[in-house]
Amino acid sequence: MTPKLVHVVDDDPAMRDSVAFLLDTAGFEVRVYEAGTELLDRLAKPARGLVLTDIRMPGIDGLELLRRLRSAGQSLPVVIMTGHGDVPLAVEAMKLGACDFIEKPFDDEALLKALHSALERGGPTEAADPALREFVRRVGTLSERERQVLDHLVAGDTSKEIGRVLDISPRTVEIYRAKLMAKTQASNLQELVRWAVQAGLA
């Protein structure tokens, strides 16, 4: 069986090398690119595999790369690597058609899980997905305040910022956050944001 191909785009050589080594060890076929333009120049059409790209790069950033791939008719799955605090950018990327994002620094297992999941799905989750419908149902069980906190979290706001807008303490925001995470059964903020975008709530 042909190994699954991952195109890794990152301007940081150390990051490229470590991700390539991890994926190679995990049995993937890996191609690395220093810039989005290099990927666009070298990508066959139709392309196979998946693109794993950093979101913040000089020249063409991850969002622009995603736009250009889609406008060129490339429909292969895209997973975005983001820095801490890049939630609004991750939301924008998913609206453009990225199927997942993963926050740096990530552990090896989290990255491999995200890639396997993206390759199995082949693209963004459809709204008809039963798990997605279940998430929407769970969101419907949130209190008004929990839903407000959810909306602000998905917009990338910190607990301090949310507290200021809602006129409650950051500690109270954390309590609401814990409650809404439990009710929606999202294991972390990344998963919460991914589901919210795919469900059209962000």
From TrEMBL:
Supply the source organism for this entry.
Methylorubrum rhodesianum
Q: Which CDD domains does the record associate with it? A: LuxR_C_like, REC_FixJ
Residues with the 4-aspartylphosphate modification: D54
Swiss-Prot/TrEMBL keywords = DNA-binding, Phosphoprotein, Transcription, Transcription regulation
Q: Which InterPro entries match?
A: CheY-like_superfamily, Sig_transdc_resp-reg_C-effctor, Sig_transdc_resp-reg_receiver, Tscrpt_reg_LuxR_C, WH-like_DNA-bd_sf
Gene label: fixJ
* Residue ranges of every copy of the HTH luxR-type domain listed in the record: 135-200
Domain (Response regulatory): residue spans on this chain = 5-119
Q: What is this protein called?
A: Response regulator FixJ
Q: Record's Pfam families? A: GerE, Response_reg
SMART domains according to UniProt: HTH_LUXR, REC
